Structures are given as C-alpha cells and as structure tokens.
Iron-containing alcohol dehydrogenase
Amino acid sequence: MKQFVYEYATKVYFGEGAAKEHLALALSSYGPNVMLAYGGGSIKKNGIYEEVTSILKNAGKRVVDFSGIMSNPTYAKVQEGAQLAKKENIDFILAVGGGSVIDCCKIVAAQAKTEEDLWEMEMEKHKFPTEVIPMGAIVTASGTGAEMNGGAVITNEEKQIKTGMAASAPRFAILDPEYTRSVPRMQVISGAFDTLSHAMETYFGNSDKDNVSDDVALSIMRNTVVNMRRLLKDIDDMEARGNLMWDSAMAENGILKVGRVTDFSAHQMEHQLGAYTDCNHGQGLAVIHPAYYRHIVKDAEEKFTRFAKVVFDADSAEAGIDALAAFIRECGLPAKMEELKSKVTITPQVLRKVADTCNVIKTNPRELSRDEIYEILMECM
Ligand code: NZQ
Ligand code: ZN
C-alpha cells in the first residue's frame, strides 16, 4: 500500500425523511444566509423545493435561490454563482440535485472566497483553494458520488475542456432514495452505470496484489449490477434505488482509493467527449468502456479474469468484457457514439480532438498513446 491520510469529511444522513429529520440541526451552526442551489427545475415539480425551503425558513434561514445549473455545469455558471454568493453574503451553500448541481456548488464555494480566477489558479499555477463557503448536498439523482468527495467536474466552454477541479467536500450529505423517485428512467440507469464505472476504474488501476480495495470494489460492482437488474424489472423498486444510492457514494467517497493508484482513463476520454458534445456522463462511459477494455485486457489479464468471474459469472477475461457489453445493451444504454445525444455530429474529426486534448493516465495497466485513444474512440463509432 502507498502512504495515505484518511478522513471522512462528509457526514451522511441516509434514509426516507432524512431532510425533515436532520436538515435544520445540520445547519444550526452556520449563519442565516443560505444559498439554495438547484438545476433546471425538477425539484419544483416533485415537491422537494417546497419541502426544503419550508425547513430552511422554519429554521430561521434567509433563502437565496441559485437556479438553472445545467448538466455538465459550466465555468460561466460557477462565476454567476460566486458573484451571487458574494453579493448576498452567503454563509452556507445547499446544493439540491445530482452531480452537476453539487459540483457547480463546490467550485462556487471556493470562487466566492477569492478574487483570483480559480481555473487559472488550479490549472496554470497548480495552487488549490484553502478557503471555502461551507456547503452541504441533498442528493436528488444518485450515481456520481459527488456528495462525498472534494472533486468537481466543470466544463470550461471557452477552452473546450471538461475536467476535474479540486475543492472541499460537502460538510454533510442527505441521501433519501424517495427524493430520487421522479428521476427519469434513463437517468437512473445512466447514473448507476457511472457508479459501476467508478468502481471499475479504481479496480483496474495498478494496485498492489491482494489490496483490500480491489475486493471492496468488486463487491460494489457486483452489487451495482444486481440492483440495476432489479430496476430493469421495476424502476420503482425503492429498495434497489436505496442500495444503488449507497453504492454510488461508496464508489466515489475515497474509501476505494486509499493506499493505491487508480485508472480513470475511460473518464478522461468521456470528459473531453462531453466538452465537445455535452453528452450524458454515464452514457458516454457506457459507449467507451468495452472498447477501452478490449485494448488493455492482455495487460491485466488476471484482474480482468477475476472481474469477469465476480461481477458477471463469466469464465475468462474476454468473456467478462463481452458480458459488460451485453449488460450495457440489456440496460438500454447507448453502445455506439451515434446513439449518444450530442450537440454536434460526432465525426472522426471531433474524436481526434477528444483524443488530442484528454488527460492521459499513467497508472492504468498500460499507458495509451493519443493515437491509440483515437483508435479506441473510433471503434465506438
Ligand atoms: O436539472 P434538473 O431539472 O434538476 O434535472 C436533472 C438533470 O436533467 C435531473 N434530475 C435530478 N434529480 C431529479 C431529476 N429529475 C427528476 N427528479 C429528480 N429527483 O437529472 C438530470 C441529470 O442530472 P445531473 O446532475 O446532470 O446528473 P449526474 O448526477 O449524473 O451528474 C453528472 C455530472 O457529474 C459529473 C459528470 O461529469 C457530470 O458533469 N461527475 C462528478 C463526479 C464527482 N464530483 O465526483 C464524478 C463523476 O465521475 C462525474 O464526472
Ligand atoms: Zn463518473
């Protein structure tokens, strides 16, 4: 194992009614000015907005809305939120949504505390924020695990880059499976596939042999597949939704990553694909994963064989990848670039740009050249 320091920064309140039971107390030690951040309006239709604002008002908070956070949140939206937070003297940011709302708020929280441009500070000066407005997350769509980590994925439209930024993790996360009831079926499945991807990407990093993280990651993968299959039969199976909500947090809360390196190559390709196409994150991953794994299977055959057996009851490394590809189809997820919802037509030229601009990982079974990344992406056409 590599050296590590480990601490859980986020207190989790899980279960039905968690906001009603815990939100007021969770906010009691913060000032009165709360920024209530959300996306395109789903929380106004499903009653969550009303429930949360009434809890906040009864707790004596002044609520300032920050709305319209889009999927694949942009750096421009971060700046809008930071301006508002400064103007309104915000004491606490409450993100109510999926990964996009939570990520946007993490960076708003840091940008509101500095006059420096945060993108420039992190990407060019390699300095990271030390002061943030405290924030919390109420998850309404699970999958990313953003509620329990300090990273955020932001799209800089001007620079055509979608990438991870560092910030602070939420102080608390409220995970109520009931709050996800109205999530459209395809988003539920895409989110869960993202969870599966996080556990796979961690597992296929070059870990020490017999690292406990590998065993836990495999369990999360298997459990995610089992519960996704339950949802394919009945999308309103709330027990399965709850299981997946915790799988999602477990896969990205850092517990799998202590003392080891990870892969996350599929994520790097998907993030840049997202920068050019604005495609759905989980769906982009579904398209890329099998093609990527067929390229590296020989470089980590033992690991792929174990993955095949534990997650899909398949009996060889290659059969495991075939089973993953079949599972993607079984879920109705896109398996080809042309099946993705994209703001531009995905052409070989677009994929060349993606290959030329994505981060290249060095801790995967084999480092890929940009030409090989392009080849992988072209195989997804
Ligand atoms: O905007 P609204 O109207 O709320 O609609 C959203 C959005 O259209 C909808 N939704 C959310 N809760 C709902 C609901 N609809 C009905 N009922 C509800 N209860 O769901 C749609 C998708 O939401 P979004 O937040 O975009 O999805 P997701 O949670 O998959 O987040 C994706 C973003 O997270 C990043 C991705 O790159 C992408 O930008 N990621 C963040 C990570 C992290 N910070 O740890 C890790 C991931 O690998 C990922 O990269
Ligand atoms: Zn992801």
The radius of gyration is 20 Å. The longest helix spans residues 212-233. The first strand starts at residue 11 and ends at 14.
